[in-house]
Structures are given as C-alpha cells and as structure tokens.
UniProtKB/TrEMBL annotation:
It is an enzyme of class 1 (oxidoreductase). Keywords: Amino-acid biosynthesis, Disulfide bond, Lysine biosynthesis, NAD, Oxidoreductase. It comes from Tulasnella calospora MUT 4182. GO terms for cellular component: cytoplasm. This is Saccharopine dehydrogenase [NAD(+), L-lysine-forming].
Amino acid sequence: MSSTTSTRQPLWLRCEKKEFERRAALTPTTARKLIDAGFDITVERDPQRIFDDEEYEKVGCKLVDNNTWPSAPTEIPIIGLKELPVSTDPLPHTHIQFAHCYKNQAGWAAVLTRFARGKGTLYDLEFLQDEHGRRVAAFGFHAGFAGAAAAALALADRKTNSTSGPLKGLKLEPYNNEHAMVADVKEKLSKVRNADGSPFKPKALVIGALGRCGRGAVDLFRKIGLEEDDILKWDLAETAKGGPFEEILQVDMFINCIYLSSSIPPFITLDTIRAAGPNRRLSVIADVSCDTTNPFNPIPVYNVMTTFDAPTVEVDVGEGNPPLSVISIDHLPTLLPREASEQFSGDLLPSLYQLPERKTARVWVEAEELFKKKLADAVAYEAQGGK
Ligand SMILES: NC(=O)c1ccc[n+]([C@@H]2O[C@H](COP(=O)([O-])OP(=O)(O)OC[C@H]3O[C@@H](n4cnc5c(N)ncnc54)[C@H](O)[C@@H]3O)[C@@H](O)[C@H]2O)c1
C-alpha cells in the first residue's frame, strides 16, 4: 500500500491486560514502518507496556486512552498480543492476537461465540503461516534465551547461596534489555568458584538446539561466555538412539527446547537421577518446552509450572543426593519484553503490510478460513449445551 493512496489502512494497538505482560504486538519501530507504508496507527496508552507511550507518539501514532478499543469504529482492526479479559460481550471488530481458543483450551467456545454474537473476526497470531505451514512470527528465540539465563541464575544461586533444599531466594524480573540480562547473569556466575578457588566453568546441554528456542538458548550461553565445547547442542540426530541419556547428568544445566509432537522415550527419569548418586553434575533443568502435563513429557521428573516469583521446583532426587531444580515457566519471553517484541513484530510486518488486501492475501485468507471453521465448531458446541 503506498503512502500516496487516499485511503490509509487504520490499525489500533490495544493495551494488554494480562498480568506481567510487558510485550507489544507493534513496537515504535514497526509502527513507524507501517505509517510509512500508508497505515494510520492508533495506540492505547499503556503503563505496563515496555515501550513508553511517547515513543509511539514520536513516530506519528495517535495516542488514545487505555482500554478504549471497544468504542473504536468497527472498521478499524484491533491488534494486541494476549487474550482479552474474560467477558460475554459481543466482539464486532476484527482482532489480531493470540486467543488460545483453537485447541479446545478451557473456555474456548465462550471466547469464540463472542465473535459470533458481534459478527467480528479473529486472526489468531499463532495460525498466521507461511506457504510451508511455518508460523510467520513466534517468540521462541527469546524464550530459549531467557530460559537459559534463568537456568544460569539458578545455577549461580545454588552454587553461591545454598547447597541443599529449595532455591528460596531466586526471583526473576523482566530486564530492560538483553544487555542488562547478560550482564546480570555474567556477574552472578563470576562469583562462583571451584573448591580450589579457580573460576567455575559451567557446562550446558541444549536439546532442540536447531529450533527457535534452542538457538536462543545457545546464543545466551555464548553471550555469557561459556566455551563452545561446553555448550552441547543436540537435536533429532542426537536423540534418535532413544533416552534416557546419561549425558544429561554430566552437565550443570540441561535446557529442553524440543517441539514435542509424538510419544518419545523420556530424556531423563527419576531412576536415572537417583542411580547417578552423589556425584551427579546436573544441577538445573530449564524445561522451555513446558510439556509439563503432556502424557509424552520427556522430562517426567516434576509436574508443576513455575513462576517468576518462585522460578524453581525441586526434584525428588533421593536421600543423600545433590539437589536438582527445574524451571518450567510458560511465558519466558516476558523476561526480555523489548527485544522479544521487536523480533516478533518485525517478523509480523510482511503480513501486516498485506492487511489492506486481507480478503485475497493467502496468509490472511487461510487464517480467516480457520477462524470460520473454529467459530462453527464453537457455535455447535454451545448449541448442544457445551458438550
Ligand atoms: N516456555 C515458553 O515461554 C515458551 C515460549 C515459546 C515457545 N515455547 C515452546 O517451546 C517449544 C519449541 O518451540 P520452537 O519455536 O523452538 O520450535 P521449533 O520447531 O522452532 O524447534 C523445535 C526443535 O526441536 C527439535 N526436536 C523435536 N523433537 C525432538 C527430539 N525428540 N529430540 C531432539 N530434538 C527434537 C526439532 O528438530 C527442532 O529443531 C514448543 O513446545 C513451544 O510451545 C515455550
């Protein structure tokens, strides 16, 4: 769409209402690019967003009050990241967001029937796909990056503060930028010493290392100064022999980043952990994949999700054995809201440029077809009394 076109494409960036969510679907950088391409961008003021309102104003966005999108003209598409607060209000707009309602998640039909009642449309960000069926934008890289950082912080905490029992002091908070995260992790790890006073050199194993999350985890380990030989990178080829894997017990940190699509043998079990006895090196597992409740979870040694306030859960390692902590946080990119938003929004841009042609552009047409199918399922489900 050219900026000389008389009708400019409007797009409204709404606030996020999910607790701790500081990321944004549009950043000042991508908003500016859209404006240059012929868009009019309206941005709701939002104190929880990592980007200041003024940053959007400076690049030419029109600022409006927080949470005012319900009264926006219905022809303006509304873009946001996470779910809308639970409500039964009809949704007459076009919404672009993660709605988490296509896989029969709790409350899925109630979310979709709001669109049916309002005659609105949902383009779910998780289902905007390229011609090869891959997502056009995803947060994986920064999930892996942050998961590896959290593991390194837990390791440093374990080695410097407490030798046994739960890691009580560790809390995670979003960092202003990647530089601050890397500096913090490096500083905390630098305090760890071996028994002879020499610097401690951690070793890590990343499984799923060729994927988005895995590449992010490897990048963090490189940036905090791990030696290349101390970052073991495994993907399908290395796990083809089938777990459990002794190698996991012989590193300090294990970062699981696989995309689980079928039943596979476990990577590690309580038996292998206990059998390793008191000399086990493994101290922290960051389960970035977080298939915690999946029956095929390849890390069946814990069963709860953890949080920024209490990031670790202890594995029942058996009497006399060294502690083992697991991190299983399902919104890790929130730890790096600025970079995660920039990367996601940048990856989304080519599709957003096609928004004015959304009735014919493949990426939008396919997303709308999927929405219509899911909408019909939800309407039928509610008509049968939610069964
Ligand atoms: N915790 C979070 O905050 C968070 C955020 C984003 C994504 N995720 C999750 O992380 C997982 C990975 O996402 P992604 O975007 O990196 O996926 P991806 O498809 O980009 O990468 C997955 C990688 O895992 C590898 N893999 C699959 N099965 C394997 C096996 N059995 N052994 C070894 N390697 C295997 C694949 O070859 C691929 O390289 C997904 O489950 C996703 O939902 C978690």
